[in-house]
Every structure is written in structure tokens, then in C-alpha cells.
Amino acid sequence: MPDITLSNVQKSYGGASPLAVNNLNLQIGDGEFMCLLGPSGCGKTTTLRMIAGLEGLTSGEIRVGDQVVDCPAKGRFLGPEKRGMGLVFQSYALWPHLTIERNTDFGLRLRKVPKAEREARVAKVMKALDIEKYRDRYPSQLSGGQQQRVALARMLAVNPGVLLLDEPLSNLDARLRLEMRAELKRIHAEFRTTIVFVTHDQWEAMTLATRIAVMNEGTLQQIGTPNDIYDRPANRFVAEFVGSPPINILDLGSDHPLDIAARDWLRTRLGERADLGSAGLRPEALQVAMTEGNVPAGSFRHPAVVTGILPTGGSWIIEVNCEGRVVFLTTTESPALRGGEEVWLHARPTSLHVFGQDRQRLAGADEALARAAAGMAAVRQA
């Protein structure tokens, strides 16, 4: 399947309502697993439906390879049945009166695929998705996870160039969601189908995608690999949306002692910049020392009081209070701490995500903090 390119795509439902999708530019490569991630109402499902041809653009253009499939300015619109794409909805939409085998071959029968070829394709996808043993059952006799496999098998049987998935795992319980994530990874590796996956679940996006497009209020916020999105969030929205427990945000313009300490510490490394807005610290980037003397030289630090230790099975969330400000950190080692104990929080320079007053990642800050970290390493070696 050729690349899918969205250029300056806008979608409006009329009236005074804001644009559902605003000036979206996005390229999805052949064989890619792209996740559209964002909160409810951010425009991700609308984007998926425009790619599928179920929604028309207000303006802009969608191309599949060199072919324009939707462009109002050119009077061009290619119907969904001609785009070579398969769509799996949040609801499985299986025919209740048809067996699993008949549900799976439904699209092939509509296309009048010869019987021998139809049976071969159905056998292949049913085996791949481990639903062969259910071929003579009906949807009501299967669990939610099994029905989801049937819905995927029905789409894969027609061999679409692109598989579009609209929050297909949201109706499953936690264990089935985990199993289906692994199943989708395997399907992608085996069939090499281009997949566009809509979700509001950050962990689904992080574990499944080759690239993630984060959206908010109809606007693309950042696109990159899962590591890019997590390690270098482009703005404060992305930093706060991705991560659990959420990132700790320090307001560099406030008069709280923790914020003042962060602002002063950053100014010694970034200079007297007027555009400092906020800084973020991931919970796993924070560490605890019992005395200030045990804090590595050059680290950001602040005194705190332990207020809670929350085991999560395999890791622990530690809640501390910094003069009225609650901060969370995580550890994979059982903490030898007690409630009410006084400690020192600390973090390496490269652990801080610095954002400007426009809430965008602050230009030049990463490089300056990396130099500070290199200086710390040189001091330790000396």
C-alpha cells in the first residue's frame, strides 16, 4: 500500500463550533503502525473516518500514493469502497445469525471471491488468530476478546492495504486488552498491513505503535516514536498527557519554594531567560536521599517529607510533600522509608523537561542541561 498523506486537512461541522480537525499534516508510511492518541473530542476518530472515506474534508487533501482520494478544492472524492481499506469499529458489528466462519468470509462473499480462494484465505486468518475451533459457533457464544478476533479476521481476510481500528479494545477487560495488544503486534509483524489505530489509552499507543500522533482540540501536538513522545515531549500538553503517574509540573513563575528553587537552579544553567514557563520531572526520574550530603553534586534538589508509600506490585509510588506541594516518584526497589520521614528529593539535570511561557519545549534547554550533566560526570571521575 502506498503512503497516506494528509495535507492541511480541516474538518468543520458548521456553525460556531470549533474545527474538529485543524490544519492537520500527517504522513503514514507503508507497513507502519500509526496510533492517533489524545483525549475524547480531540479529532482522532474524525481523522480516521476521513481517511476511510466515511467523512468528507472541509478543506485540504488526502492522497494515497499519487492518487488524490479527497480534495474539495479539486472536486475529488473517492468512496470508501474504492480505497482498499478495512475499518474495525469499537463495537464488533458481527452478524449474530451467522457462524464465525460465515462472519469471517462475509467480505469475500460480497466481492464474489472464488470458493477455493475464499476458503484458503479464511483458513489462514482463522488459524493466525486462533479462532479455528470456533468456526461453527455464533458470536453470542464467544467472549469479548474472541469476538474482537473475529472482527479482525473478517477485515484481514479481504486483505486490505490499510487496517483502520477505532478504539477496538476499549470494551475489553484489562487482561483481554493485554492479550489483544500482543495479538495486534503479532498480526502487524506477520501480515505487514499498514495499521492506523485510534486510542485515548497512552499505554496502548506506547506498546503498539511504531509512531504516535498526539492530538488535542483538533490540532496535532507531536508526532514521533513512543520514545520520542515520552522522552522529549514537544509541549506541556504532551508531557502531562503521556505518563502514569503523571509528570510533576513546577510553575517557574510562582512564589512557591519548590518552584523558586527550580527557577534559580535552572537560571544558573540556562542563563537569565525571560521565557521560562514551567519544568516537568517524571516520577521515575526523581530519587530520594536521606541527607543533603548524599545528593550528587550538581543535581536539582529540595527537602521533602514522605506522606505515602503505595505498592503497585513490582514497583512503588512514593508521595512526598514539599512545603504544601505534593510530588510523586516511583521506584522498582522496595523503599526503606516511613511516613513522616524527612528526605531530600533530587534529579539529574537531563531529567528536567523545560517549557517556555508558550508551553512549548524550550529551545536550547536540553543542550545546556546535557552540558551540566557532563560536568557532573567529569567531577565524579576526577
Automatic annotation (TrEMBL):
GO molecular function, one term: ATP hydrolysis activity
Matching SMART domains: AAA
Domain ABC transporter: residue ranges: 4-242
Upper classification of the organism: Bacteria, Pseudomonadati, Pseudomonadota, Alphaproteobacteria, Rhodobacterales
PANTHER family: MALTODEXTRIN IMPORT ATP-BINDING PROTEIN MSMX (PTHR43875), OSMOPROTECTIVE COMPOUNDS UPTAKE ATP-BINDING PROTEIN GGTA (PTHR43875:SF1)
A Pfam family it matches: ABC_tran
Record protein name field: ABC transporter ATP-binding protein
This protein's UniProt keywords: ATP-binding, Nucleotide-binding, Transport
Coiled-coil residues: none
GO cellular component, one term: ATP-binding cassette (ABC) transporter complex, substrate-binding subunit-containing
Similarity annotation: Belongs to the ABC transporter superfamily.
